[in-house]
Every structure is written in structure tokens, then in C-alpha cells.
Amino acid sequence: MTVETIERTAYRKPPSIVELAPTREEPLAQETVSVVQIASPTEIFSQVKKTPLMLEVEKIIQGDLQVFLARKYSEEGLSTPDISQMITEISGGNIKVREQTINNWLRKFNSQVRSRSEAVKLAWLNPQKREGRIEGRHSRMRKRAKSKSLSEYWQSLSESEKENRLRPVREYNRTVMLRGIRETLGENPAERLNEMCWQEDLSSKEIGEKLGKSPSTVLEWMKFLEVRVRKRGGTAGETPHGYIKTNKEGKQNLVEEARARELVQNLDPKEQFVIYYRYPTDGIIQRHVEIGKRLYPKGAKINRQWPQALEKRALQKLQESVNSQPSGLLEAISKPNH
């Protein structure tokens, strides 16, 4: 072997991958591809779960609901109100399907639903619907014109003419209302309400509970019958609300009587504090806000509701004590002479 042969053998390039790969004479096997068959629209519709209402409609129309809706809506161009009315007429009024339900059915069956503009155009092509829309528009225009003319006519009248026109209406309303009041209270409703309010000392709420009416209805009746309505809180009587929810004079009399009998000492310290400043024997009456500042520590949220609640509770306790214990004069009279 010569030197040139040795050098060529030593510096030869390595074989490539293609050269090393074995040759294949037989052809490659064809790969199998799985093809997914798409179901037809009829098969898809048949797989939709139908509601009991849909099954009832299918019994009435004696066919498939999807085919019926496609024929009426897409081919014949009927609207959903027309289809709803048709189903009602076929069933003899036993089944009523709303327009929105039919819309939902169409979407459930993947049917293309018309837009609002398309529905208006299609309705305009129908002569009957076109005449109905035109008549409806003219009717609305006539109503607006009539309302405007009546408003202008009413404003042109004087006050005396307005009163003359309203008098019959008011008399009729008064007759109807008086008839309803007499059915509840009898022939003399004013005397009955006056008796319950002033003699039996009942509030509007208590009268309403007795008659089965609301307090506002009772007050409306009293105003209608011109029965004197007492001020908010009632009158100064022997009932608890008489002293507590009446004028300042009634409350002052209650506190003085309780002080004479030494009943104020039975109250809580805070209640005594409020009574002392709200009903002083001599001096200026303090406001609820000022009493709250004196009663509660600094930094607390002061408002007049807390002292008001304390005052109300204290007056209720004093009223109960005054009603439960007789006065000293009655005790002296009731004692037997020895």
C-alpha cells in the first residue's frame, strides 16, 4: 500500500445517514384515517329533549313540532303571534303557547329567527297587518289630539265653570263613600266615631282594629264626616297614652302627682335624672340633647333619642304607679272610723 492510498483512506468522510439507511423495495402500508360522520339536521332535531308542552302540541298538530314550525315560520312566513294563535285555535282554547315560548322552540331547533326589522318588513307586506298598523297609528294620533284639545278646553274655563262641572262627580263620590261608611258603622256614623274617639278614648289604631280597617281609613272617615280629630298623642285621661302622648300640661300634672306620692323614687337613677331636668320644680326645662350630654360620658354619640326613650319609659312607669295606687284622700275616706 502506497502512502497516497493510506492518506485517502485516512481522510475519507464518514458515511451519511441516508447512505447507512437500508433500502426498502416493498411499498409502505397505507395509514388508516378514521372519518367522523356528521349527523343530519333531522337526526339532531330528533335528539332534542322535548318538554311535556311540546309533546301535547305534537298530539294536537298530529306531526313533528320541528317540521310544523319550519313550515309555518320559514316557508309560509307566519310570525310567532300567528303561530301561537293557530295552536290555540287548533286546540280549541285548551292549550295556550306564548310567543316567547315559540321563539325558544325555534332556537332550540337551531332555526334562524328573524330580526325585528325583518319581522316589521314581513308584517308590512301583509295587507291586513298593514291596515291594522296604520289604524293603530291613526288611533294614537286621534287620542293625543283629543287629549290636547281637552286640556286646552279645561284651561280656558273659569274657576266657577270648573266647580260646576266637578260638583256632580264629587257628589257621586260622596254618596258612594257615605254608603260604605254606613255599612260599617250604621245609620249615624258620625256619632259612633265621636263616641269611640272621645267617650271611649280610643285611638285611630284601636278604632281601626275594632272595625277591621286601617288607621288611615278611620282618619279619612272622621275628616269626611267632620268629626273632631284629637291631636297627635290623644287626650289627658286616665289611660297610659293619655298622660304620655299628650300636651306638656298633662305630663307635668302626672309628674307632680307622682312626686306628691313619692313615686319618683322608685324609678331608675337615669330615669330620675331625666325627670328632674325635664320637669323641674323651679328653673328652666332642659332640652333632651343637653340632658344627654350631662348623662352620658364625653366622646359618646349624643342625640336626643336616648333621653326621649328614658323619659317615655319613666312616664309609663309613673302612670302605672298612679293608676295602681289610690290617692291619699281616697285612702283617708276608705279607712273605717274607730
Protein described:
The chain has helices at 3-10, 17-20, 41-46, 52-61, 65-75, 80-90, 99-108, 116-125, 127-156, 159-185, 189-199, 204-211, 215-224, 240-244, 248-260, 269-278, 288-295, 305-324, 328-334. With 338 residues, it is mainly α. Among the domains are: 48-125, no CATH class; 162-224, no CATH class; 240-323, no CATH class. The longest helix is centred in the middle third of the chain and has 30 residues, at 127-156. Residues 3-11, 26-39, 41-45, 235-246 and 328-338 have low confidence and may be disordered.
Low-confidence stretches: 3-11, 26-39, 41-45, 235-246, 328-338
Mean pLDDT: 75
Shape: elongated
Number of helices: 19
The helix content, as a percent range, equals 55-70%
Distance between the termini: 170 Å
Radius of gyration: 47 Å
How large a portion of the residues is in β-strands, by DSSP E? Answer: under 5%
Q: Can you count the beta strands? A: 0
Largest sheet: none
SS class: mainly alpha
Q: Order of helices and strands, N to C?
A: HHHHHHHHHHHHHHHHHHH
Labels describing this entry:
mainly alpha; disordered C terminus
Write the layout of secondary structure elements.
Layout: H1 3-10, H2 17-20, H3 41-46, H4 52-61, H5 65-75, H6 80-90, H7 99-108, H8 116-125, H9 127-156, H10 159-185, H11 189-199, H12 204-211, H13 215-224, H14 240-244, H15 248-260, H16 269-278, H17 288-295, H18 305-324, H19 328-334
